[in-house]
Amino acid sequence: MTGSATHDPARGTLTIVIAADTFAPDVNGAARFAERLAAGLAGRGHDVHVLTPGLSLRNHGVFREVIEGQEITVHRPPGWRWFPHDWLRFAWPWRAKHYSRRLLDEVPADVVHSQSHIVLGRALTRVAHQRGIPVIATNHVMAENVLDFTTLPPLLDKLVLKLAWDDAKRTFDMSRAVTTPTRKAAEFLEATIDITGVIPISCGIDKRNYTPDFSERDHYRVLFVGRLTTEKHVEVTLEAIAKLVTDIPNITFDIVGGGDQRRNLEQTAQRLGLSDRIVFHGRVEEDQLRASYAQADVFAIASIAELQSIATMEAMASGLPVVGANAVALPHLIHDGENGYLFEPGNVDDLADKLRRVLTADPVEYRRMQQASLDGVEIHDIEKTLDTFEKLYRGEPL
């Protein structure tokens, strides 16, 4: 079934099925993008359905869920926890095609948009391809990121990695278009699995949701938002904070987000004598998250595995200077010396120096960096992202 009889897919509203192996209530960049995409499309009048793992083996079915203020139809097959990971849930791979066929039997999809090539995204792509339903694929994955959670020996990890990318290529070859959040990420994907024409499309944010603070004040509050996992390297920022205590006696560090590394990071903070300066907020509600950005003075991200970093864009929309690792996609957002600084990945002294420059900048220089962040995030407006995906769904040229 390739379209609804009640509308013209070329011009009117569309029935869109999104496959997301991670979605609300998960907190990570891929889930947040899928939520914003689904809500944004629903807000434009499209009929949006999301296929994503259930919250448990018992809590599954078809639900009407409010996502970013919009009601979305969410199809949740039984979900299993992957216990080496702090939140990951998955549907049984050998049942994924069954769930996909059942959904597409019930929903007259005009297009399928896969957010991963792992389980549900892989299965829904294959079933849609068999039925002649066009597929758009977005890659949020650096497969290397999941190796910490396989619990396999390193030699087997390499084999799993090769098999995963080989299967990703087969999945992407069934898609009308393949996208990823940045040009750097597109180049990475093209080189890794030998495909061409990957389209960079920003995940996008609604900058109207964030409130910059231009008041003059002492600058000493450092902020990180994200999952507390090994590739984020939050310990590098902790060590940099410890080096700045003498120069900036009232320096503090707010860490927003949960993850399997929280206990290790708390122990590191204690070892460095920073326990009274570090606040681990854990996962917070959206209004608390926006307040955290508004109260901070600089956003610090030491991650070496960002395909875009929604949190960095949110910080920029909040008018924060940003200091980040010169790795993967962060240089697309952080322009060294303009809206903040890049530092050599893993180099604690370099990070401390760059944080010092921001926190001790005079008011005119600090305000200039704030404005540069606001200017730089303009091109990542969510409405532009939605416009681009609508064209892809309809087969229109970009």
Number of domains: 2
Helix share bin: 25-40%
Order of helices and strands: EHEEEEEHEHEHEHEEHEHEHEHEHEHHH
**Radius of gyration, whole Å:** 21 Å
Class from helix and strand fractions: alpha/beta
Largest sheet: 8 strands, mixed
Q: Which CATH class of the largest domain applies here?
A: Alpha Beta
* Shape summary: globular
Beta-strand residue fraction: 15-25%
CATH architecture of the largest domain: 3-Layer(aba) Sandwich
List key phrases describing it.
16 strands; 2 domains; Rossmann fold; disordered N terminus; alpha/beta; globular; 398 residues
Q: How are the secondary structure elements laid out?
A:
Blueprint: E1 15-19, H1 29-43, E2 47-51, E3 61-67, E4 70-76, E5 80-81, E6 89-90, H2 93-106, E7 111-114, H3 120-130, E8 135-138, H4 154-172, E9 177-180, H5 183-193, E10 199-200, E11 221-225, H6 234-244, E12 252-256, H7 262-271, E13 278-282, H8 286-295, E14 298-301, H9 310-317, E15 322-325, H10 330-333, E16 340-343, H11 348-359, H12 363-376, H13 382-394
Parallel strand pairs: 1-2, 1-7, 2-4, 7-8, 8-9, 9-10, 11-12, 11-14, 12-13, 14-15, 15-16
Antiparallel strand pairs: 3-4, 5-6
Helix pairs in contact: 2-3, 6-11
Commentary on this structure:
The protein is of the alpha/beta class and 398 residues long. It folds into 2 domains: 15-204 and 381-394, Rossmann fold (3-Layer(aba) Sandwich), CATH 3.40.50; 207-380, Glycogen Phosphorylase B (Rossmann fold). Helices cover 38% and strands 17% of the residues. The chain is built from 13 helices and 16 strands. The protein has helices at residues 29-43, 93-106, 120-130, 154-172, 183-193, 234-244, 262-271, 286-295, 310-317, 330-333, 348-359, 363-376, 382-394, and strands at 15-19, 47-51, 61-67, 70-76, 80-81, 89-90, 111-114, 135-138, 177-180, 199-200, 221-225, 252-256, 278-282, 298-301, 322-325, 340-343. Strands 3-4-2-1-7-8-9-10 form an 8-stranded mixed β-sheet, with helices on both faces. Strand 12 (252-256), helix 7 and strand 13 form a beta-alpha-beta unit. The longest helix is centred in the middle third of the chain and has 19 residues, at 154-172. The radius of gyration is 21 Å and the shape is globular. It starts with 14 loop residues before the first strand and ends with a helix. The relative contact order is 0.12. The model is unreliable at 1-8 (pLDDT under 50).
